[in-house]
Amino acid sequence: MTKVLAIDDSRTIRNLLRVSLEGAGFEYHSACDGVEGVEQFTEVEPDVVITDINMPNMDGFGVIETLRTGPNRTTVPIIVLTTESGADLKTRARNAGATGWIVKPFDDGSLVSVLRRLTGHVV
Amino acid sequence: MSRNSIRDTFFEECEELLEALVEGLSAMEENTGDMEVVNAVFRAVHSIKGGAGAFGLDRLVAFAHAFETVMDKVRSHDLEVDEALMRLFHRSGDQLADLVEAARDEREPDSETESTILKELEAYLGESDKQDDFSFDALSLDFEAAPMSIEPAEPALRRFELRFRPTAALYANGHEPLLLFDALAELGTLEVTADLSELPEFDAFDPNDAVLSWQLTLDTAEDEMVLHEVFEFVESLCDLDIRVSGQSPEQQPEPEVEDSTAETVTSLAPSGIEAALPQTTQDTVEDARPATAPVQGANEPRGPRPTLRVDLDRVDRLINTVGELIINQAMISQRIEELELPAVSHLTNELEAYKLLARDIQEGVMAIRAQPVKPLFQRMSRIVREASEATGKKAKLVTEGDSTEVDKTVIERLADPLTHMVRNAVDHGLESPDRRTEIGKEPAGTIRLSASHRSGSVFIEIIDDGAGLDRKRIFEKAVEKGLIAPDAELSDQDIDNLLFLPGFSTASAVSNLSGRGVGMDVVRNAVAALGGRVSISSLPGAGTTFTIVLPLTLAVMDGFVISVSDQTMVIPISSIIETIRPNRRDLHQIGTDGRVIAVRGAYVPIVDVAGNLGLASSSNDIGGGVLLLVGTEAQGLAALRVDAIHDQRQVVIKSLESNYGAIPGVSAATILGDGKIALILDPDEVVKLHPAAPVLFTTPQPRTELRHA
């Protein structure tokens, strides 16, 4: 099963993601901040990562940088899911190694189709 | 998990976020320079906005957005926090809380305050911030996304020639050329040709290198811009060249060699390789991925302690069952006692162990319901703020013992009385800033809220450093209201206690805050319903202290099993100061039926429990039996006379009122070890039933009942 790791400090967003992603047949894992997210990444070995930007302990940029340049660097797709939509933030995320950027609130169908495209996941 | 329950958890989360917000704002006030605090406040507002967006709560989103944007300016040092801005932040926090509450209850919030605050927030924003129009209507997918649907019409097809040479960074960022090609294929007819010319010899192969490039031909009706959109997120990570071939799709395009990519495309790949291509790229990408590190085991847990969210009903069912277990244990003990086994036997040893375990379980279960008073105390900062604004007084709130844990139900039911008392403390307790300066106090008064555990009870104190109670006025007021006779002689304590009488209010004008028909009597009853009591102490010129004493739990309590006129009853240990076996010497008769006992020089009225409850007194001998010294709210010390004390044990409180009916002097019932029901006495009420009690306190008052949580 395709594994998704969602990193977001909002329990509500994590719950919503769980419902839509599990419904679409993904194996769902989550973490509530950047530090836990990076830890979970090693543990879970997901096929795709969804991360928020504004989080305590380590923000989304930190997550992307750690996953892209840290000792366990990875090439799995990392999608930023945030309420922010500023162009400079997007550029920063891209330069750090983000694969895509989705603005909250997200639409279940579109999110799932994006994830499918990135992972080749079939239901 | 249904969407509804997600909505519920969203509001639960909002509560937590709002708490963090209030806490953060207070911290900001104390240390404006701490950016960590500003970040935390920003995140709280931001998270509320994010969740609210998911549920289409537009007003909440819009307000949170304005709030967040101003906070962000503070975060980026574009805005200095001064007193006015801090006040605005506090009000915004309060408004946000109101909007959350309104959204939860699905009602319309007060739009007037909202728009006032919004205007004030916007005043802090520059033109550029306003232009950053925040729209939640459209889902924006900034991605290498292709439109999901293809126009069925037959517009003019154009042929695009694309050259695509990814850099290693493209793979490193998690992109997959194959998926980009899939997206292009959705736009029209795609032909892909791979250029394998740069593939090195097998032994020189570096899996992290990007050596492949592609030439693509796309026949599509889409605009060139749409093609660029597909590559939006990768354009800086690859060499990309898109051009219209200028030829109609029917004609085979001549292979062109571009200057920019000349060195990469030296010859076209044989057509036979096309089919194998996707697999090749896939493998290359797979190989390029560094192996993830082995799982390092789940040691060194970080971050917040793991928690489990449980339905409150389940906890309450568990508590009920544990209650039954305690009763059952008492019954077994009783049966074993009846067997008259030797004092030390295996069975009694095991039974002792069983008792300890049962007690541990019960304490453990109670701890589940226990919550720190912090959120409750935090809410009071808003009350203090609002009350001081409405009265023109200056007040600050200081809290102590925030982490003291109290039963969840107690916290919930304490919110209203506490609000009222805090409001009163500002409204009636504190002097005006001018007056305070005049008498050498700081212009801003202090309201101190403190919580602590002391000897099995929870103490909550509301302390102000105001003028203290004006006993003369209280007395006059009580006379005016016909509550006492003009010539009544009352001690200071008696006068203070007049505040608790129904219908008593010292505010002569109905102010914005008080005079809502809620007096201290309501506070007193609310606290009494939780099995607690309130008392006042006041020092003229120095301030007033209200003390609320509550039991730790509402489900069980420690009690003395006593007998009164052949009836077995239970009296809460927490209310008993000491037990006295009276010495005839210390007993005195006053008048015809008034009896007192001298306790260390003070005369304490003796209250015959049997007589007050309407039972036949077992003996007329006032020297017999045992006296239980209790402190009552209404009249200070009293000595309750009972026939005997049999046991001290933990009893499970069973509501009497909901199962049977109200009985004066009785707060609840319990089941004893022999299976019999015993009434739990309310010493305060029993004393009030005393025929000789002062007239002042015989005013019928709403009964209070101990209720199971």
From TrEMBL, chain A:
InterPro entries: Bact_response_regulator, CheY-like_superfamily, Sig_transdc_resp-reg_receiver. This is Chemotaxis regulator-transmits chemoreceptor signals to flagelllar motor component CheY. The modification 4-aspartylphosphate is found at D52. Keywords: Phosphoprotein, Receptor. Residues 3-119 form the Response regulatory domain. One of its GO terms (biological process) is phosphorelay signal transduction system. It comes from the Bacteria. It comes from Salipiger mucosus DSM 16094. SUPFAM superfamilies: CheY-like.
UniProtKB/TrEMBL annotation, chain B:
Residues 296-554 form the Histidine kinase domain. It comes from Salipiger mucosus DSM 16094. One of its GO terms (biological process) is chemotaxis. Residues 272-308 are annotated as: Disordered. Gene3D superfamilies: Histidine kinase CheA-like, homodimeric domain (1.10.287.560), Histidine kinase-like ATPase, C-terminal domain (3.30.565.10), HPT domain (1.20.120.160), SH3 Domains (2.30.30.40). The modification Phosphohistidine is found at H46. This is Chemotaxis protein CheA. GO terms for molecular function: ATP binding; phosphorelay sensor kinase activity. Its EC number is 2.7.13.3. Residues 1-103 form the HPt domain. Keywords: ATP-binding, Chemotaxis, Kinase, Nucleotide-binding, Phosphoprotein, Transferase, Two-component regulatory system. GO terms for cellular component: cytoplasm. It catalyses: ATP + protein L-histidine = ADP + protein N-phospho-L-histidine. Involved in the transmission of sensory signals from the chemoreceptors to the flagellar motors. CheA is autophosphorylated; it can transfer its phosphate group to either CheB or CheY. The keyword Kinase applies. Residues 556-692 form the CheW-like domain.
